[in-house]
Every structure is written in structure tokens, then in C-alpha cells.
Amino acid sequence: MIIKILSYNIHKGYDWKNQKYFLKEMKDFIIKNGADVVCLQEVVGKNSKNQDMGLIDSQLEFLADEIWPHFSYGHNAVYDHGHHGNMILSKYPIESFENIDLSTNIFEKRGLLICKITLPIKADNQSPFFYTACSHLNLLHSGRVVQYQKIKNFLLLNSEILAGPLVIAGDFNDWNKQSSDVFERELSMQEVYKSTHGYFAKSFPSIYPLFCLDRIYVKNLTIKKSNLLKTNNEQTLFSQLSDHLPLYCEVEVNG
């Protein structure tokens, strides 16, 4: 069975310049690419300022409506006028979910949203479910090092997750490409774009990508393809729907 996965930092619905609000265009773009499971970062759960400006106040139901019948949201950053965090959209039932606090300082509230997703597989030699985790990690390397260890320790304490099909996706902010020390060497995971192309994807800034910030790591899944997706807004020359480019892959559940 092939599973199509998309990871995308939607920048709270704004373009790379933080000026134009492109949430509807982002949803249309995501739908067009036909992913079964979508891992989103910087999703607004509530924002009264958006409401005052006539924008969508809660992005959760709007993004999931009609296409992905199952979704989970983990709010991380909470402020006076609302909150935002990570979100997983799924075409398959989400059996359970957990939002793990990865915060290392008072300025960056981070989390790992992990869902157990049921698959329509009946064969005895295949897993009937897989785990998908979505995260947005710290800007500074020192904080990310702590977060890598927190994620590793959580997985080691939950052997069922590591034993079956697993996806960890998101904005790792890993500009210095050090996440592989834990995820590849210590957890024996594969990064989909690197495995396909030989190097990490340059996904930021979207207008002229220079930095390799976004990742999709997998375990006990066969990588079939992976690529970055372009998000030019056709109606606005030189405009991008977010400050990140989305990372896409197709993986096969191992028999």
C-alpha cells in the first residue's frame, strides 16, 4: 500500500513576506497534490486579531473540511489573542493522539504531535496502522539537540511505535544538518528526500531556497519518491504561499 505524505509550514496562512493572507490558496494547493496524510506547522487554532480583520479565526476546520475526515491539532504557542501549533490531516482514521511538550525555553513553545493512524489493510503480513508525528523545532542548534534527545527517549520508551511503520515530519530548522546524528544513526530512520536525491532539500526561504530546514524521516517504510513542491501563486508574480516550500513523499507499507 502506498501512502502519500506532505509536510508544510504554512506560516499561519501568510506569504513569505508576511503580507498577503493565502490560506484558501494553501488549502487548494494541498488538495491538488492529493496527499493522504498532511503534517502542517504554524497552524492557527484561534486568533482574535484575524477575526477582527475578517480573516479565518480558526484554521483547523477550514483546512480539514471535505477532504480529510480525520485531523488532530496540538497547540504549542499560546498568547493573549489565541494560539498556534502543529496539525495532522488524515484520510484514514486517527485511533489516538498525543501532544508532547518539547519546549526548552520560554520564548519558543514547541511540541511533537503524534497520531496512531489505522490503515485499510487486512493482510496478515502487513501492519494495520502506522504512526505519524509532526513537529516544529527550535531556531538555535543547542535547543534542537535537547529536542532530538527528547524525541529519541520518547520513542525508546514506546517500543510499539519504533517497531512499526513510523513517520516524523516537520520544520526541523536544521540548517546545519545535524538531525541525522540522532534520527539516522541512533534511530535507524531514513530521510526521504536525502535517500532519494543524496542530499537534504533546500526548502527555505520559499522565494529563493537556500536552507535545508524541513524533513520527513521514516522507519519500516519503503521510500518510493520524494520532492519539493513549488507554491507560486499564479495570480501574483513572484509571490509564494508561505515562507517554506512543502516536502512531499510516497512510501510503501512493508509486507
Could you explain the architecture of this structure?
This protein has 255 residues and is α+β, with helices and mostly antiparallel strands. The protein has a single domain, classed as Deoxyribonuclease I, Chain A (4-Layer Sandwich), CATH 3.60.10. The protein is built from seven helices and twelve strands. The strands form two sheets. The chain has a six-stranded mixed sheet with strand order 3-4-2-1-12-11. Strands 5-6-7-8-10-9 form a six-stranded mixed sheet. The longest helix is centred in the middle third of the chain and has 17 residues, at 141-157. It is globular. The N and C termini lie close together (9 Å).
What labels would you give this structure?
Deoxyribonuclease I, Chain A, 255 residues, 6-stranded mixed β-sheet, alpha+beta, 7 helices
Tell me the series of helices and strands, N- to C-terminal: EHEHHEEEEEHHEHEHEEE
How many beta-strand runs? 12
CATH class placement: Alpha Beta
Content-based structural category:
alpha+beta
Characterize the overall form.
globular
Biggest pleated-sheet summary: 6 strands, mixed
Gap from first CA to last CA: 9 Å
Give the count of structural domains: 1
CATH topology: Deoxyribonuclease I, Chain A
CATH-level-2 architecture:
4-Layer Sandwich
Task: Count the DSSP helices.
Answer: 7
Low-confidence stretches: none
Mean pLDDT: 90
| Rg from Cα | 17 Å
Name the beta content range: 35-45%
Can you say what the CATH homologous superfamily is?
Answer: Endonuclease/exonuclease/phosphatase
Residues in helices, as a percent range: 10-25%
Q: Strand order within the widest sheet?
A: 3-4-2-1-12-11
